[in-house]
Amino acid sequence: MIQDDELREIYKISSQEHLEKMETGLLELEKNPNELDSIEELLREAHSLKGDSRIVEVESVENLAHSIEDILGDIKKGKLTLTPNISDRLYETLDAMKKLVHEAVTDEPSDIDVELTLNNLIKSVYGEEETSSIGVEIHITMTEIDPNPVYIEDEELRDIYLVTGIEHVENIQSALEDLKNHWDNYDRFDYLLRELHSLKGDSRIMGIESIAVISSGLEEIMRMAQKGELNIDSYQNVMYPRLKDTLHGIKEIIFESTTGKPSGINPNQLLQILTFKNHDSIVKRRSAIEESFPESNDFLEFDTMDLLDSEESPEITIDIVPETPLIEETPPTAETQIVQQSPPEIKPQSSQKQQKKSANNHNNNKEEPYKIDTIRVQTRHLDALMTQTGELTVTKIRIAHFASQMEQMVNLWEDWKMGKMQNRYRKGNIYTGENDTFENRIETLIQDLKNSANDNSTRLELIADQLESKIKTLRLLPLSNVFSFFPRLVRDLSKQENKEVELVIQGEDTVADKYILELIKDPLLHLIRNSIDHGLETPEERINAGKSPQGTIVLKGYQTSSNIFIEVQDDGRGLDIEKIKETALRRGLYRPDELSAMTRSQIQALIFEPGFSTRTFITEVSGRGVGLDVVKTNVERLKGSIEIISETGKGTTFRLQLGTTLATANVLLVKIFGITHAIPIEFVQTSLLVSPDEIFAIEGKQTINFDNSAVSVAFLSELLELGVSQDNTTVQRSIPCVVIHIGKEQFGLLVDEVTDTQDVVIKPQSKLLKRIRNVSGSTILGTGEVCTILNPQDLLASIQKRNLTGKVARNVDAEKARDRATILLAEDSIATRTQEKRILEGAGFEVVTAVDGLDAWHKIKTRKFDAVVSDIQMPNLNGLEFTTKIRQDHQFSELPVILVSSLASDDDRKRGAEAGANAYIIKGKFNQDILIETIQRLI
């Protein structure tokens, strides 16, 4: 962890920006591989991240950034082609770097194996390691170096590089000499590697690429030596002379780049030395020269290049075969074969303290909510705030003077009451003017106080308004802060689903409150996942439907005077109304007559019911079986609404309407039973007086004619279950009615009185009152009265339920039934069976266990079960066979079956779906939330 608080905060912000820009740039480079500007931008960001990480000594991120920089450099030079495989590994490396940055600024273990990540990156880009019976040949891949000399133009940089470069080389030479006699001195290895790394970094900054590449090769050789892949004999007899000669060549290139005098050194020949090119001939020639010139060590160092055959082309890889294998070969087990199908699992290399901390956090392994910790502020906004602060100081002084005047007034009043002032007045001790009277003095002082109070109130109101406006401006951030997360997501998920998807982003410059951006990310994430998984067809299906094989998702933001709108639109298959009806009937949510009475938009809105899905098989992509009710809940937390626009075969649009701020709200105040309630003004279409004669019934619904449309109405007091203050059916006076609109839906609320509109400050609610039907919050009015802020979406649901059933529907019986649900658990491992049983019982389910599929098949016939949770790999009857038997028996055809297995391939999932399972949970990704959410969604 970075110890310096200021550096830690700066590094957190800068590194996150660099990583986000690198991800965006990589996405752009994938679309336009020949766009040099994208490569240049990526190289700059990687280089900056590497430099920042070096300064704060976060070596893990520095090393990974350096490797990415090298790969991008090779792509730019045309020596590498950006393939999908290379892109995938670069993205994985960026993800690892994000976790390492988080570790560096929070001290929370990242569980990232940096060496493994680096090796996977190099192998994916430059080829797999070759294995042999005697060990593993390690390839250190470098590119051929430009032999043309480079002269540093900047005089100051030239002088600095000459001093630091030579110092690094001499320190490296000293460390190499020490290692000849102290091979087990690991501190010396660390020191040597640091010096090599610094020399490489300095050289690259100065543009001396030849020394940077050669230093990188030296660095890799010494890392292998440090890990025991090179023994002392090989080092003393073979490596040490080569390293000395290479360092001498580096020193000559440093002089050449800082003095302009030719060194005669070809850096590619230095590479030949490192790669043992013509190794046998070099040794023989060196031996002959050593015999002839035993004291001429300097000569040998200067003329080593002459020992090489200049006509030979330079080798670009270092092949070192260790004497002992690096990887212990073991026969693959079934478990290891499954693991090998996925990217290698990242293992932590942390201290005992970190491992303990990681273990403590294991049970809470949930993704952290998106949070914006810092906001960049333009200086003009700060200047404006400072100006208002000055005005506030002046007003504070004026109010202090006003308080002094008030004190004088109080003293005069006290004197008056005690009769002192009359006595003093008669003696002429205070007032000397003939026309001065005590009453005039009091009147003048009162008038001054009145004027001061009005003036101060006006000034304070003006300052407060401007401060509020400026502070709100500081919290406004562009939607691009959130939208930038989704191009990478769409790329990965479309690839996973074998679909072609283009994401089009519009209106990313639209600004919204920081808190809105933090809470809107998850709903948008869920909607985009849903579009990819449910909405868009496969390329084959699209071609058969006469569409382009590539689907399109449009993520758009725009703003009105009082609202922010965000749309997620796809050109996919659209919502299937009949399937939605079938699912509603199957789930027992509505009766056929109730569904027939619903409008198209009301039926489409059913997809937001908890646990509602037309899919019979749950996938990881669209949310592990968690329905769109999660999206609706989160949008409502933002005082917003969600509207669906869908046409079968043409696509679906989810339109989110959000308020511009969550701290304050403009509301319409209404009264029932003398109690004031507030309705957010953005949902109010109008208010009007309705005569009882104008209320009529359509199919049992209370209705009025509004703008030539039939609009359902209800008494607000009844929707809030507060009772009826009078006989609403016989009342003769006109009734105030507030018409509410949510998307395309309209309804009317009958109230006792409509009083006023007002800006209110929303007060945070107690966690005990976090989710009360029909209520979204509360506020305190200027009168001191506590006022509830109503939730229009809940009121719409309440009036729809009321119209369908004749009363406000309640789902208590369904909730009780869910609490009594019984689960059949089939698992042959006693440890796993015990753990899963505890989880299910802890969630309120009754659990019956079975030791294998055959045992479960016998028990399923003994009583009624609400769901089956089964392993796949079991004796006697495996989970797939058990599921097939369940589906073949008509009495169990609708029984939800959830498979929980370590088999993680797409083929395994497909076999589960073909057998008839409703959900497939991978044990490697298993946690109790997934299991509980899935069961609740299915039953």
Written account of the structure:
This protein has about 950 residues and is an alpha/beta fold. It has 6 domains: about 5-130, Four Helix Bundle (Hemerythrin (Met), subunit A) (Up-down Bundle), CATH 1.20.120; about 140-320, no CATH class; about 395-475; about 495-660, 2-Layer Sandwich (Heat Shock Protein 90), CATH 3.30.565.10; about 665-810, CheA-289, Domain 4 (OB fold (Dihydrolipoamide Acetyltransferase, E2P), Beta Barrel), CATH 2.40.50.180; about 815-939, Response regulator (Rossmann fold), CATH 3.40.50. About 50% of the residues lie in helices and about 15% in strands. Helix 20 (about 515-535) runs antiparallel to helix 25 (about 630-635). The longest helix has about 40 residues, at about 380-420. The two termini are about 45 Å apart.
Task: List its salient traits.
alpha/beta, 939 residues, Four Helix Bundle (Hemerythrin (Met), subunit A), 6-stranded mixed sheet, 6 domains
